[in-house]
Amino acid sequence: MNAAVATSVFAVFMVATVALGLLALRGRGKGGGLAEWSVGGRSLGPVFIWVLMAGEGYTSFSYLGAAGWGYNYGAPVLYVVAYMSCGYAIGYVVGPMLWAYARRHGLVGITDMVAHRFGRPWLGAVVAVLATVFLLPYIQLQITGMGVVLSVISYGAVSLNWAYFVAFAVTTGFVVVSGLRGSAWVSVLKDVLVIATLGFLAFSVPLHYFDGYGPFLDRLVTEKGEWLTLPGHGGGSGDGGGSGFGELWFISTTFLNSLTVVIFPTTVAGYLGARSADALRRNAVYLPAYNVLLFVPMLLGLAALFVVPGLTGAESNLALFKLVVDALPAWAVGLVGVAAALSSIVPMAVFMLVIGTMWGRSVLSLVPRFAERQKSAAQVVVVVAGSLALLLTYTAPNTLVRLSLISYEGMAQLLPMVLLALVWRRLTFRGAFSGLIVGVAVVCALVFTGNDPVGGVNAGLVALAANLAVALAVTLAGPRDADPRPDAEVLAHDPVGEEDESLDAAPAARSASDHRV
Length: 517
What we know:
Radius of gyration: 22 Å
């Protein structure tokens, strides 16, 4: 009976989610082109941009992974709050720059920007392939998270394998049809449910299991003090079984992720969907308030130490929902499950959409037969990318936070080519490309041989340092690129004091292909 009630609530909201995505397309013309599908026609206002980017930042990783890492390690999981807050501050400057650059030149993603900056269309294709490789773990993360939710709220009636497939099918169908605008609309529903359910759980769980916060915190300090300081439970430097998540790891990971998040393809998709640069600035000011919610699943993960001890490995992802299922009636379990599922659907939809856009715009467009059908090609890629992530979910399961870290460490290697290149004209193609090759090679070697962190430092930052060293050495020692374009055509700048509408003229001619289906 409990399973029927909870899954019925879940199913009703999933149908409503798809309907809301379809409703978002009303009045937008039949089908629309790639720009309409991928960046919402560049017309989303401050409210939609806020909920979309909050939704992209608050994922099943935040809902389940934060609880799981709080359960496994404790204090190290606070890096999530630290890097997101720092990233929003950096985004206050970077977001409007990238928005203006893309608007001026009719671009729809970071692959377009790289190809335009260095004047090599094939370079956009290379970046698209690399970005896809490092984004797939994040899609896998969302499939895993939503699958865990569905399986647990069904009280085991739906197996994890079937739950993973449902997560893939619902999200793939949703993003193919609705695009970025639909994701923004659904983000509103998701935010309402997330705030309501986490607010409720923040008070109900300590009261139900510990008779309030006082007894809970007293037990936590007395019995689990190791979880409350760095490097958290497990301690050590990473050698001999220690976690390795000490002060150096915390600082290096926060620094790396705060830089990387501003050029993450999904973050850039949110930037480019904005109606104006000022909407992005206001968004960067208000987004940190959303981080307060992140403390709730972290706290609930610590509470689970006393209620459901003994969870290991990927099982720790279940920590929060094991509390929920035990403490709440079935209908409430269903609502919490919907909030967590939407925390997977919205970011997963944006990640899949971004991969489809990168391939449709920068890879398949190089093939003449696909050049005129970029949107259709992108939608096919969405299905393929989702299928690959589903396959990885079945064959290479991992904890949600581990998957997130791998994505960020890999994407960080694009920082010189995407960000440094747009503010420093001297950086040459040879330098940026050589640094990228070295950075990707180093991060893959370190991560896949189990040497992350390195002496307590995030492996992605070590790889980025090598990347930058090579890029600068090759640039300064080699010849300058023969690019006759003026700085205004090549570099990005913050459009402070400019009329946003003045940027609209150029893209009309340059992005005619965006309006072809």
